Request: fold
Amino acid sequence: MRMARRLACAAALPLLLAARIVAALEPITVGIAIGAASAITGYPSYKDIYCRFAECCPEERPLNASALKLDLEEKLFGQHLATEVILKALTGFRNNKSPKKPLTLSLHGWAGTGKNFVSQMVAENLHPKGLKSNFVHLFVSTLHFPHEQKIKLYQDQLQKWIRGNVSACASSVFIFDEMDKLHPGIIDAIKPFLDYYEQVDRVSYRKAIFIFLSNAGGDLITKTALEFWRAGKTREDIQLKDLEPVLSVGVFNNKHSGLWRSGLIDRNLIDYFIPFLPLEYRHVKMCVRAEMRARGLAIDEDIVTRVADEMTFFPKDEKIYSDKGCKTVQSRLDFH
Reply:
């Protein structure tokens, strides 16, 4: 019996190798090769084998909450609110077999505080290839929607792109970077997809995830953080309720937020407004150490201190927060 199995697998091997060679080029050929291999061996299903050679949409793949928690706690510094909210929101959403709407998160804060970094971590935990996945889609406002006179065109293109990709993979992830540079009105094109509809034009969007990244509201977040600091409280004392209402109203009334008077806010379709607090000196040092570890370097505290000391801090008198967060840590470390 064992010998028969070995012979069957040996016969299937050339077909599987052929499938691997053409996987990136011609799915139909892959299907024929894999189907033949499955018929010969009588073991793995078509889908099981196909997904070894081509990326498949993980419809029922559970979120590894422990892995995401570890990533957030070990790689994201000074953002207790973002860590807590993102972990709970994603875990709850992915554990819900029948969500009523897509999960929509809006991340706010100054540059260098970790918004892009977090969106990358989220993508990697949802789809193994992360930002390189066919099911993760990144839009950059200044790149994909640069011209104000083409708003209607962008709206149509955006709807078609999202509809097509969610049709192909219900658990697609859409990330919108530089929301504060997005022309007003463009984002409202996706409002029907974020609403509480079972289907829109025979497509269900309820398992998709939308993430907005914006510098808008950074001033409001800093103002609250400073108030806590001046009152002798720690940043960890800040709760989501201290910032989320201020953020939602602030970006709704901000012409340069990408969400100015948006129906997404008016209809309460954004599930969480997540504040990213300005980073302190100690957090910058954490970023330097993390970058040194990523480069395989031994941690040299003298270099860590020198890099952190090169950063500029605000307000002018207190000098508490890094004005660029950790954004320039990589380039500054190159000089040491």
